[in-house]
Amino acid sequence: MKALDQIVVEGGTPLRGAVRVHGAKNAALPILAASLLVDGVCVVDDVPDLQDIRVMVDILRALGASVEYSPPVVRVDARRISQTEVPEELMRRMRSSIFLMGPLLARYGHARVSRPGGCTIGSRPIDLHLKGLAALGSSIDERHGYIDCRARRLRGAAIYLDTPSVGATENLMMASVLAEGTTVIGNAAREPEIADLADFLNRLGARIEGAGEDTVVISGVQSLAGGRHTIIPDRIVAGTLAIAAAMAGGEVTLEHVRPRHLGAVLTKLREAGVEIEVGRDIMRVRSDGELSAVEQVRTAPYPGFPTDLQAPFMALLSVARGMSIVSETVFEERFKHVGELCRMGANIRVDLRTAFVQGVPRLTGAVVQASDLRAGAALVLAGLAAKGTTVVEQAHHIDRGYERLDEMLRGLGARVRRLSQS
Ligand code: EPZ
């Protein structure tokens, strides 16, 4: 008997009201990993209460750090680490734990992780991480599914990333902060979460310049002292809620957001006919539910259209008048939501990494499967605009990126229920 794990959505109700956007998962994860670099206590605030955060807390504890976690505050004391091998079971629960290698190697001269597998959105290679760590002087020994890195002391180096990888930029930035000499990371990723990680580390005594731009310069220091940090708002959650308001119709105010982190998304929403007003840390989204197709949406590294909002935005395009073309240039398998949207009556044809979305007047509710956190969110949003009832199964995927998405939407008047039985 399959455990109940569903989000049930009744379509057709406009959204009204205000909702606060929680802290960014993809800033909190590297910042918690970076606490291993610190010879003191770190207190991190506005950490979202998500499955992946709980796995990261478990990993830090397994390594010997003492961690107090009372959402949204995490307090880490990594002065007494007892081991530098990340337990395989925990690695398997979250592939992005790969960026624990940098801090462990930098502070303790050793890191051993099981090679992360791929996932539903692609093979997720880590060659850029390993090439960068080797350039910093680490030995890399890969066998039996494990990666073992050793370095007496890392030395600064000039590193060029063939792809502006977010994780590789973060891993190598963290590895460099305690290295001897200066490291330059060329073609670095520019996501706001990378600038947030650098802000955190610089507050503790690191010397990082250019984070958030395509060249990051890190001057190694002897050690980092403890300190406090508050995570930036989650731009992907903000974008998801804005798309929900656009699809359901109504008027929604998003609080605790950074509109400037959503430039490409706001442009595309406005092209689709959505009214958006921005303030310093709020966004007001108005829609009558009548949406127009957007000629071309191409995902790209920041500041391009974020791949993490490709699925939610495709849900919007599936009920927008006209033909839209969506190109997914970042991951090779990120169209798993297409089949499920078509079960709801969407008219989408995929050719390799391009989807042709012919808008339909209305979707119809159906039983659909979430395959990853963003595809799952897209199906909930499609349910808001559909006629009848939509049941999104495997809803646990959504909990990895959204803190109680059903509650956030219910707070705006949506008829959404969470049915889960562990
Ligand atoms: C981060 O993943 C995010 N995760 C992802 O969010 C996000 O989709 C992705 O960046 C892109 O923005 C976290 O921050 C925890 P990448 P990451 O390395 O770092 C290739 C979500 O939904 N690549 O920037 O793994 C890779 O194949 C998640 O919250 C290499 O070729 O992404 C991909 O095509 C999903 N070699 C491209 O770079 C490498 O060594 C971008 O990947 C590393 C990556």
Give your account of this protein's structure.
It is built from 14 helices and 25 strands. With 422 residues, it is an alpha/beta fold. The strands form seven sheets. It has a four-stranded mixed sheet. The protein has a four-stranded mixed sheet with strand order 2-14-16-15, with helices on one face. Strand 7 and strand 8 form a beta hairpin. Helix 11 packs parallel to helix 12. The longest helix is centred in the middle third of the chain and has 14 residues. Bound molecules: ligand EPZ. Ligand EPZ binds next to helix 1, helix 5, helix 6 and helix 12.
Give the SSE layout.
Elements: E1 5-10, E2 15-20, H1 25-34, E3 41-45, H2 51-62, E4 66-70, E5 73-77, H3 88-93, H4 101-108, E6 110-114, H5 127-135, E7 139-143, E8 146-150, E9 158-160, H6 166-176, E10 182-186, H7 192-203, E11 207-209, E12 215-219, E13 227-230, H8 235-248, E14 250-255, H9 263-271, E15 275-278, E16 282-287, E17 296-298, H10 310-317, E18 323-327, H11 336-343, E19 347-351, E20 354-358, E21 363-364, E22 367-369, H12 373-385, E23 386-387, E24 389-393, H13 396-399, H14 405-410, E25 415-420
Parallel strand pairs: 2-14, 3-13, 9-10, 17-18, 21-23, 22-24
Antiparallel strand pairs: 1-24, 1-25, 3-5, 4-5, 6-8, 7-8, 10-12, 11-12, 14-16, 15-16, 18-20, 19-20
